[in-house]
Automatic annotation (TrEMBL):
This is WGS project CABT00000000 data, contig 2.2. Keywords: Membrane, Transmembrane, Transmembrane helix. Residues 1-127 form the SigF-like NTF2-like domain. The chain crosses the membrane at residues 259-279. Residues 132-202 are annotated as: Disordered. InterPro entries: NTF2_SigF (IPR057514).
Length: 299
């Protein structure tokens, strides 16, 4: 995904509503081979290239593919809507708020309108490729002298990278998209104009033409913010689906199951009130501490 917030809608719709071939293509395109999957009813850990006699090599992405296919078999017609998506660029987490209606076809009256939050753990495609490159295999085949030379070269490169990182990205490199802009406390991408004391956040800023940029009157969008093009492409390494208890009970017992849990939740709330009313006199008898003449604070 080049623009996770925009692209995730199509990815989720295809996985839940697409044909088996579309599901497979989407998983192969957007998920890493060793991706994991966590759901209240299913769990697939990270694994890759496990040999299964009579089948061949299996990875966790293929396992996830079978889960989505079974999901579609149980409910051939799924209504799903991605209501919102937020990308935490610092942690590479994509939070997606989803509403869906799941209906098991062989249960005529089964209908489960549920809400969930899906958290997708992302990794930049370049980082993934670097982590899975053949450099480790090459190192094992090198003679000792070549290994030492390679290690020394890597050390020199790391020292050079560290020196460059101390200086920070230049304004020109950020503008050209060659450096990652800094973030505000709210996570908004920023670029630094020539005066470092006056950073300008570009979110929701109008996109200026080239002449305005050359004159320094406007800031160019960076890293996919406000329509700016991003050179990064993200892959999914883990999917976690979070449901309220009453929502995932709808999968098993439809709405009656949710009503039972709803009643249990109300009962537990009443118990909280009763517990405080019964124990408050005892707590007050043990000691009361007042701060600033306000309400009593239990000690």
């Amino acid at each position: 995904m080049e623009h996770p917030v925009k692209d995730v809608r199509g990815v989720i719709r295809t996985l839940c509503q697409g044909s088996p071939k579309e599901q497979e293509d989407t998983l192969n395109r957007y998920f890493t081979p060793s991706a994991s999957f966590v759901h209240p009813f299913c769990r697939v850990p990270h694994f890759d290239k496990i040999y299964i006699p009579g089948y061949g090599f299996l990875n966790s992405r293929e396992f996830i593919q079978y889960i989505y296919k079974w999901y579609k078999i149980l409910s051939p017609k799924i209504d799903i809507e991605v209501e919102s998506a937020v990308f935490d660029q610092r942690l590479s987490l994509l939070y997606v708020n989803i509403a869906q209606t799941f209906s098991i076809w062989f249960f005529p009256f089964h209908k489960a309108p549920v809400r969930l939050v899906t958290v997708l753990h992302l990794i930049e495609e370049d980082d993934f490729k670097n982590n899975n490159s053949n450099s480790s295999n090459l190192r094992r085949r090198l003679p000792n002298k070549a290994k030492n030379a390679l290690t020394k070269q890597e050390s020199d490169d790391n020292d050079s990278d560290y020196t460059d990182s101390q200086e920070g990205p230049s304004y020109a490199s950020v503008a050209a998209g060659d450096a990652t802009p800094e973030k505000t406390e709210e996570g908004i991408s920023m670029v630094h104009p020539p005066n470092p004391s006056n950073p300008v956040a570009v979110e929701n800023a109008p996109i200026a033409d080239a002449s305005a940029w050359e004159s320094g009157e406007a800031q160019r969008p960076v890293d996919g913010v406000n329509g700016g093009k991003s050179n990064k492409r993200y892959l999914i390494t883990k999917q976690e689906d979070f449901y309220q208890v009453n929502d995932f009970l709808k999968f098993l017992f439809s709405s009656p199951g949710a009503w039972v849990w709803y009643a249990i939740q109300l009962w537990n709330s009443i118990l909280c009130v009763v517990g405080v009313l019964l124990l408050e006199p005892l707590i007050r008898a043990l000691g009361i501490k007042r701060e600033g003449g306000g309400k009593p604070k239990w000690t």
